[in-house]
């Protein structure tokens, strides 16, 4: 007699029968029955993380792949290598690699000494000295070049006090020196962050074993900092390779040509046919260098160390009898690197014309008035603020999203997405500007502020991505697993844990983007149109017009505002 299984009729052998009693379930071969719910078959839903990944790829491709792809396509359109070789591209490439690499080495050495001295010893006045030494980060490199040429140029202040010149800053050695001065603060931020993560227990264990404080620092702490030192070197070298202002103002007077200044010469001179194709050929070479640099950085990141458990605060190392001499040397070096250039700008700004003796009766405010009342200054300030804030907001959100997805999820395209986001960091702004010049002609962005904003986002997105990668990699996955166990979706778990925990690091990166964008010149000077000039372009126009004192005056105001902003940021952070 047939029985029933779960309320359905079954045959004698216990198998469920069909509704018509034939004993065969009507399931189509090759297809699984859909899971049943109260409302019928459940429909497949697209995961929010997958949708966000697709959206990120579309945005990053539009901002990075499109402009750089146009440069590559133009560079491959014809063979311009023989022409470039005849014009000295090999020498320019050698100068670029040597100046960028040597300045990066010097910057890392200086930043390491600075981090150990300011963060691990009882040096007096460490907080104020730290702010002073970080001030070059807020001074545009081309402004710093103007200031240092006023100090150490052939007719500079320091050289006029001697019967013979102290040092002529023009040339390759001056380029290396200024690149070092303007890049060591970035290296310090990377190294100091890694130094704070070194547990103090390791040094204490070495001290208990009989090692002195400095021996423990040299044999325990510095080896643990090796990945951070290599990362700082890579980041600094890539950044210096893309610099234009310092080689243009300090290197070109002595015919020290780099790849970035060579690009500018081809675009502005009009002495070659199809200059965009020639520039794109140089851009391809720089893209290859960028791929190699980012690849090295990825390999170093995989070999980096991490320690589980809480990080104990290290003990402050006493300087003993060397405390006062070390303070004198540190403050003297800090003043020479930061205060002297500001004084040089002030001297040029308060004199009526170059070459006028520095006397009380010759001081005037005419240059300051001319700089602040120039027709393009107010427009430049307004545009720079709009572009800097806009780029900071876009880069903060987009960089945080890229960082979260590439470090907290598993996907085959994580490396590719990170590589694409970091690539523009190694590309000169001139090449990025050329790409957007081409893209802008086909998108309606040409001759608008939006094309400059797009170029800023392309160039500075890597700053936020780099800023959020380290904290994201150190965030334990147990918190996300707990969120998933509580019923949260993948998207909700990523948003509630790594996204929210990394917002402070992303905001720090966004502030760096704003500070970098507000002082930018290289891309703006090529993409500028009537009514879209930026503050950097306004200074550049004053200098090109021969009003060097007004340019120095406006540069002085920019530097003072940046230093004041750094002081307010530091004071608000200390108040917390």
From TrEMBL:
Membrane topology note: Multi-pass membrane protein
Extent of Polar residues compositional bias: 1-20
Gene Ontology BP terms: transmembrane transport
UniProt-annotated location(s): Cell inner membrane; Cell membrane
Residues annotated as transmembrane: 54-77, 97-119, 131-154, 174-195, 278-296, 328-351, 385-405, 417-438, 450-468, 499-518, 550-570
Entry annotated with the keyword Transcription regulation: no
Family matches, as InterPro entries: MetI-like, MetI-like_sf
Superkingdom per UniProt: Bacteria
UniProt KW keywords: Cell inner membrane, Cell membrane, Membrane, Transmembrane, Transmembrane helix, Transport
Protein name: Iron(III) transport system permease protein
Species of provenance: Rhodococcus triatomae
